[in-house]
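Z., the sequence and structure:
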Amino acid sequence: MRKMDALNLLFQLSIHRGADGSYEVSAIDGAKRVVSPARLSTFLFFMNEQALYGLLSSTDDEAVYLNTNEFLQVFAGKTHPYATFSGLTTTDDEHLTALKEAADVWNRSDFWEHAELDAGEIRFDVEKIGISDLTAMVLHDAIKEKIQASAIQLDQLPALLPHLRKFGWPGESVSTIPVRVAFRLTEPAEDGHTEWLLETVVVSERGAHWTPAARKVNAPIEDALPAKWKEYATEISEKQSEMVSFLRSTEVEPGQRFLSMPMSDPEVRQFIQEDLPVFQSFGYPVILPAWLKTVTESKMRVRTSANVQSYRSAAGLDEVLSFDWNFSLAGKEIDQDSFRKMVDENREFIRSGDEWFHIDPLWLKRIKELMEQADAGEWTVKDLLFQEIPEEIVPIEDDSESDDPLLAFSMKQSLREYVEMVSDKSGLPAAGIPETLQAELRPYQVEGYNWLVFMRDNKFGACLADDMGLGKTVQLITYLLNVHARPETSSPSLIICPTSVLGNWQKEIERFAPSLSVHTHYGPSRAKDEEFVKLLAESKPDVILTTYGTATQDDETLGSTVFASITLDEAQNIKNMQTKQSRAIRKLHGVHQIALTGTPIENRLSELWAIFDFIHKGYFGSFRTFTEQFIIPIERDDSELEKRKLRAKIRPFLLRRTKNDPDLQLNLPKKLEQNEYVALTTEQAALYESFIEDTKFKLETLTGFERKGLILKMLSRLKQLCNHPALFLKEPSAPAEQMLGRSIKLDRIVSMAAEIAANGEQCLIFTQYIGMGQLIRQCLSELHDIDVPFLSGSMPKGQRDHLVEAFQAGEFPIFILSLKAGGTGLNLTGANHVLHADRWWNPAVENQATDRAYRIGQTKFVHVHKFVSVGTIEEKIDKMLVEKAALSADLIQSSQWITELSDTELDDLLTFER
């Protein structure tokens, strides 16, 4: 007994029912650990072969998604012998109880006796059947789903109900006999007869069709059957009765004999139109003549082309599309009047010459509706460009005859050229570079800026997905200068970014757009609620900077303002759409939404949905719809058609340029150096201030050589503190996640290096401190599963040479090097990124290290990132290096200049600016 208890697995389910009756299910186990949706699915569908034991379940990183019938299947048969399911909350328990009760009730023999029609739907009297209101709702949802999935129409429900009371839901009973009962439709013989024949046939295990001999057509079923099947007479008779009850095209009561019924052409047409879809929907076999089966799959061709009356530059997006329609069937042209008549008569079984054709009447009706919408001028060039017209009207990429599309769409050449111009983001109206911009944009950056303004003016969100290093920040800042120079702009713009780059944004706006007033909404003393509203009214900032964590906590405060624009930097932070952070940020209100990301989002489909739900809400519908339409066909089936559709839909909203683009290489320098500004954590700031106060006191008591020694020692200690407090405090290592939380700089270096590796690039990371190199190495290994070598002074030459050779061969993406050991004499041109984790007071030493990658043999653009902690000694010495370099490079060729600073300069250097 104890052994069985040990094996038992408890799953506490969190169950959320959607308005459409679908369910979102997640779970924790007995140890309060989150159960992955994929694992949960295998336990839910342990004995369910129909669901492939859970492999067909719709899941994401957060939950399993089930419709009502799928959930009922979980409890309809055997559940996992060692799994117990309970609700996480009282409400979850109520849902679970209702689902279990509904599964039991569904299989009761008298279940359908209590069903009744109510306003065109099947409902149950909860008192008569003895169930709760919640269980009745579950059953109602299940029946509604089954009807929607079948070919049953509302006017067929009165006829369906007696069938359900007698036979149960069609197709759910499992046959126990080795033969199948089917209907067979036979065309008229060639002897002049015009009648067709609908009859019951028995299909053997080998697929042979059997019908009674002519002399036994009217005999009872048991007498007509051959001896080997007589024992199955009752089951065969019941299955025939079940199928006959669905015949609407004719009234027939075969009684206890096999069905054998002549049919006229009109009756056959009605059978094809009304009965066949129902039989196919419920899995009843119907055998048609081979030629008729082929006819049912024939397609009608409809071609249309679109044009506009005129073009007015960018205003052409609002031009109404006009359409020309052409129809053909079996190569014969059909005029519009004939087509409309065909639709109005609801024809489906159509003769052309000596051939019959079966056309889906719902599709014909859909095309007619589209024609009416198009002719009424409901769609513009803008709708076409952004794929906001029905998919039947979207131009297909491959219009080959062999594909025989039901609808082939084309554009007049002039319209095609215009749409391609806008879609390719080339030749857009010039927005004009703001005079207050303190930078010179490269041509591709001007194009990006023009595109952002164009998208705003046309009320469409934008995703700027340029590669790291191509200047997304300066393009966005130029856009902000444009927006806040407009007289109609009365509210601030909001920028949400990771904490690790908050300081970087402050510095970049200050550098490129000093005319913009910036308020940083961050930290424990930040304004909230009424104070925030008062701050906006009094200070009138142009830009508000905040972090993802703060925006999530203050969603109500920020949600009360309609911002001039909302920008997400590193927008992949909202990729998990069910998290509180993602939901909170996607609810914020802005006149214009922009996402910045260096990640190729077109390869990460769940992330793509979340980002588009932010920049252009509702564009892809619900995540479940997006999963069914794109994620499953693309990620599971690798569907090229769905890939093309998705690319066409995202293309107008997405601007992505890479460093490998030959058009951009001409506009880039061979080497780009930039500072990456990061803030100190609260822990670091407190330690920093305390250490500086102690050092200042000691300096007052020292002179000469002792004073110089203390300054150099103090600088080294402060640099270690800026890297990570554990290095300063000489603490042992801890789990990577915990270590990242204590240093924004470490977090930023690790995430940037991982992103570089994910993009298929290579990088060098230089640090002066062994401890920092080991920390970076540990975090990349634990969090990103990247094994990173660390070249330090203690490494033997043979091993060092082997690592250099392996890196150059592309065998690993990230190489950490001690600044002294790896700063000279190495050829590492495989890297196109260089990260300086900490600053050396002698720029020549840093430059020598950078030149390991930026040297003869380097064919790629090299991006150098120098990490600087805001407000600290790192930032102040960085400024001094720039000033002194302008005077004389000789002054800074060693670190000794720091010890020669005057008391005033030293005092300024040791002042910590929060």
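The chain has five domains: 2-149, 180-289, 301-423, 443-455+465-636, 673-909. The radius of gyration is 36 Å.

Let me know what you think.
H.
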